[in-house]
């Protein structure tokens, strides 16, 4: 038992000596003002951390939002013109509607790819009276489509809340940063609570 106590005392003594040496090393080479400046820069950088892009990928499923849940698209009663900005899925939409650009609401046109990050909105389907979570993914890799421009901002949040901001070019999550059009995929029913 005394050997364990002696080993513990020696370990604590070694940690204390190492810590003291490191602190004295930095104290001899930096001033308080320099240290406080670096600490302030670190604190400011940590404050900006939430502004970084948010990946919408699940490590086990690289296309967690790239494809809707099985049956979620087909089980929804829909009616209306999907090329119209007034279509119910476009409540938080910003960009060109992919249905007008050679794709659909859920598939990018040929030659473009789906960005792996997205913003989300909760839209009300007037046909069944339900609210649905909609994933808005940009299609990237081709120049802008230029047709069926639509900007609706229901539920849009400022840029510092990126997951619900439609004012960001979301192509930074793909191989090309060239924006083409935007998808509106149903992820599932929105929680009531």
TrEMBL record:
Keywords: Disulfide bond, Electron transport, Oxidoreductase, Periplasm, Signal, Transport, TTQ. It comes from the Bacteria. It holds the Pfam family Me-amine-dh_L. The keyword Oxidoreductase applies. Residues 80-189 form the Methylamine/Aralkylamine dehydrogenase light chain C-terminal domain. It is found in: Periplasm. Its main location: periplasm. PROSITE patterns: TAT. Heterotetramer of two light and two heavy chains. Belongs to the aromatic amine dehydrogenase light chain family. This is Methylamine dehydrogenase light chain. It comes from Congregibacter brevis.
């Amino acid at each position: 038992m005394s050997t364990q106590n002696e080993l513990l005392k020696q370990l604590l003594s070694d940690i204390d000596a190492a810590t003291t040496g490191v602190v004295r090393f930095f104290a001899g080479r930096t001033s308080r003002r320099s240290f406080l400046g670096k600490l302030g820069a670190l604190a400011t950088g940590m404050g900006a951390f939430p502004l970084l892009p948010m990946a919408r990928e699940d490590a086990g499923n690289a296309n967690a939002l790239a494809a809707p849940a099985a049956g979620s698209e087909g089980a929804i009663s829909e009616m209306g013109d999907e090329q119209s900005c007034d279509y119910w899925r476009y409540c938080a939409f910003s960009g060109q509607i992919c249905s007008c650009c050679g794709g659909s609401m859920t598939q990018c046109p040929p030659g473009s790819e789906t960005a792996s990050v997205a913003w989300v909105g909760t839209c009300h389907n007037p046909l069944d009276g339900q609210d649905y979570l909609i994933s808005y993914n940009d299609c990237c890799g081709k120049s802008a489509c230029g047709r069926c421009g639509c900007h609706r901002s229901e539920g849009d949040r400022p840029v510092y809340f990126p997951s619900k901001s439609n004012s960001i070019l979301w192509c930074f999550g793909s191989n090309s940063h060239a924006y083409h059009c935007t998808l509106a995929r149903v992820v599932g029913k929105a929680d009531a609570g």
